[in-house]
Amino acid sequence: MKSNIGINKNRLIKSIEEMAQIGATAKGGVNRQALTDLDKVSRDLFIKWCKNENLKITIDKMGNIFARRQGKNNNLPPILSGSHLDTQPTGGKYDGALGVLSALEVIRSLNDIKYITEAPLEIVVWTNEEGCRFPPAMTGSAVFSGQYNLNDALLIEDLDGKTLGEELSRIKYNGKTNCRPRKIGAFIETHIEQGPILEIADKSIGVVVGSQAQKWYEVNIVGMEAHAGPTPMNKRKDALVGASNIVLLVNSIGNKFQPGGCSTCGVLNIKSPSRNVIPGECFLTIDFRHPSDQRLKEMDKNLRLEIKKIANNYNLKISIKQILELKSKSFNKKVRKTIEKVSSNLELPHQEIISGAGHDAVNINDIAPTGMIFIPCVDGISHNETEKALKKDISAGAQVLLHSMIELADNTK
Ligand code: GLV
Ligand code: MN
Ligand code: MN
After folding, report:
1. What atom in ligand 1 is closest to the CA of residue 356?
2. Which ligand 1 atom is the nearest neighbour of the CA of 95?
3. DSSP 8-state class, residue 384
């Protein structure tokens, strides 16, 4: 390891804070959803910073941005690092931006000392990681890795009926490069853990070994609108009662599949709500996760069986559509080992960890050697405006990224 090379912690923190101004919320978080005007502003700022570092920008048809720094041997496949700039509506400053700006800090630090790696380096910003505006999540990396069709992705609609493709064109990030797999030496994503494990263990670095399986669903519950006064209880087809039973069912399945199961209903809408009308139609979303593919399959079976019973009991029509499926993944051994070795050399307390969240790295893992560096976040809180990471951990993550990228770029064949 080149022990005399280091990142500039203050510059990295300053960039994170500046990026967090774009879409800043009153509670100190960020609301910068995919392909909004604010997403455009954040992308423009990122590109401006990359141009200051003499990086070559390309944008693909999904709006994924690549910023390339040439190496000594540009026939070698590049070492990539990055994450996303879009956020949840109640997002924080670090989910996504940390990974993008840590990669930028690596490049800035190498430029400071004019260190040229053997293989080229690229920073990447993946489009629509969060999936809150255009579900499902991680579509930029899913199309890039060949798991999602480009045209299908461009047709995903938000709640106002605007498509991802239209919004991409509107903010002028509908790039020309084909969005498809190409040869990549390695991909590393730096991210906050978004859970409490590292903080409790007092470790600065998580060497991510893999990610858990997940399934997302959309559920439509159809009953019948009727008057809240004259309609007897036994004559009702109350869609919200059905939906409420599903919410409780989903929660009970997560609890039943311990250890490891997670289950969430994050969206619940009543169509045309009115206080003296029995709800006739509801829509809800389900997010199921488990480290074991088999256990997740059992959760799915349970869900479908019990939903049938709810439909019968309450005289409702319930349809369930699965919109995302991710198998559990193991990250590349060489990349994991590199992150582990670098953390040891830097004498940073570290441990192996499984990612509870989905990440673009999970998709890229299918087409390139991939790994992730986690740092703790305070109280394990994320997808929340109060999300916070400590300066020492931010610095540690970027430092590990720097040396891991050098190691991989100087030793690729
Ligand atoms: C991404 O934020 C996820 O849902 O895990
Ligand atoms: Mn993220
Ligand atoms: Mn997120």
Report:
1. 5
2. 2
3. S
Look at the block and give the residue holding tokens 């994320």: 382
Nearest-5° Cα angle at 7, 102 to 88: 20
Q: What is the CATH number of domain 213-326?
A: 3.30.70.360
Provide the β-strand partners of residue 258.
Answer: none
Q: How far apart are CA 239 and CA 273, in angstroms?
A: 11
The 10 Å Cβ neighbour count of residue 409 is: 25
* pTM, to two decimals: 0.95
Interval between CA 229 and ligand 1 midpoint (Å): 42
Name the residues around ion ligand 3, CB cutoff 5 A: 95
Atom of ligand 1 nearest to the CA of 88: 2
Residues 207-237 have pLDDT tens digits of 999 999 999 999 999 999 999 999 999 999 9
The CATH number of the domain covering residues in 9-211+328-410: 3.40.630.10
CA distance 317 to 58: 48
User: Ligand 1: distance of its center to the CA of 138 in Å?
Assistant: 8
Let me know if the fold of 9-211+328-410 is the same as that of 213-326. Answer: no
Domain limits of the chain?
9-211+328-410, 213-326
Of 215, 286, 359, the residue with max ligand 1 atoms within 8 A of its CB, to mutate for a pocket test, comes to 359
Nearest to 70 by CA among 103, 115, 124: 115
